[in-house]
Write a structure and sequence with these properties.
- This protein is an alpha/beta fold.
- The chain is 36% helix and 20% strand.
- The protein has a seven-stranded mixed beta sheet, with helices on both faces.
- The longest helix has 16 residues.
- The radius of gyration is 18 Å and the shape is globular.
Length: 290
């Protein structure tokens, strides 16, 4: 596992640090609109679990949230391996926010200390009636404590409406644990969605392994290529320019539109839903249960 972490970290830092001939620095403090986010110090688990960076998939998901492509109003949301929790905390600032946002990361004092500070720092920007909780959680472990937070905030809910997974696929050995947690947390209903994003530095075969495991437990995937899977890499090349245009409207300090577009273009995304026989016609985010 140590070699896997070291190799993955080298790939991630090389991919994010150099874009063409220009370096893009990842500041310790990120200002995304009104949100002021920090990444964990480069110490201990925060370093080995890569919790000390804002990776491009979080920016991609945030842009899609800004554009209204992620249905969040009145819903319950949980983000796994949140880091600085940009996508999930952004939802709490929308004019039509979710009812509950739970941000989670590995139960380490440094990682969780930073995440709690980030939540507290931005609390004034969260729109009522949204409630934001922060909790430690290790993938693959019993999720009853996270479901208890949900039960205390929403009556009759047996799972979260939305699960966010930003840049969590690069450790192939973690897929079993991720799938277990996803299955435990995502509500078993037609409107429930999991939003997954990964950088192109995560090999396609590794991403496909996770998608296949998700399909095995009953998930159906839609992707950025418009198909239920990864699509054909050659076919997607013609769309790279469109995918690389940054379409968000909030000001992001220290990163210009060109850099944001390049980082967006380095990502893939998928939306997963349960295949529930007998339930037809329900549409969320433009995806209809078939």
């Amino acid at each position: 596992m140590t070699d896997e972490i070291k190799n993955a970290e080298d790939i991630l830092l090389d991919s994010l640090g150099i874009l063409g001939t220009e370096r893009v620095e990842d500041p310790g403090c990120i200002r995304y609109g009104d949100l002021v986010l920090t990444v964990a110090p480069k110490e201990g688990k925060a370093n080995t679990l890569l919790a000390d960076h804002l990776f491009s998939p979080a920016l991609l998901l945030a842009e899609r949230i800004e554009r209204g492509l992620v249905e969040v109003a009145g819903r319950s949301i949980i983000e796994l391996g949140a880091g600085c929790a940009l996508p999930s905390l952004l939802t709490a600032t929308l004019s039509a926010p979710p009812i509950l946002v739970v941000v989670t990361d590995y139960p380490d004092d440094i990682i969780l200390g930073n995440l709690r500070s980030t939540v507290e720092r931005n609390e004034k920007h969260f729109r009522p009636p949204c409630v934001v909780h922060c909790q430690g959680y290790e993938w693959g472990k019993d999720a009853s404590s996270l479901l208890s937070v949900l039960h205390a905030s929403t009556s009759g809910s047996r799972g979260y409406d939305v699960v966010i997974m930003s840049d969590l696929l690069h450790f192939h050995s973690s897929h079993d644990a991720l799938i277990y947690s996803l299955s435990s947390l995502l509500a078993k209903k037609a409107s429930a969605r999991v939003y997954v994003a990964a950088g192109t530095y995560t090999p396609r075969a590794v991403c496909q392994n996770f998608l296949d495991m998700g399909s095995h437990i009953g998930l159906v995937w839609e992707s950025d290529s418009g198909t239920s899977g990864q699509g054909n890499e050659d076919e997607n090349k013609g769309d790279i320019e469109a995918r690389s245009l940054w379409l968000g409207t909030r000001i992001i300090a220290g990163i210009d539109a060109t850099q944001l577009g390049v980082r967006k273009g380095m990502c893939r995304w998928w939306v997963g839903r349960w295949h529930i026989p007998g339930i037809k016609g329900a549409a969320v985010d433009g995806i209809t249960v078939v």
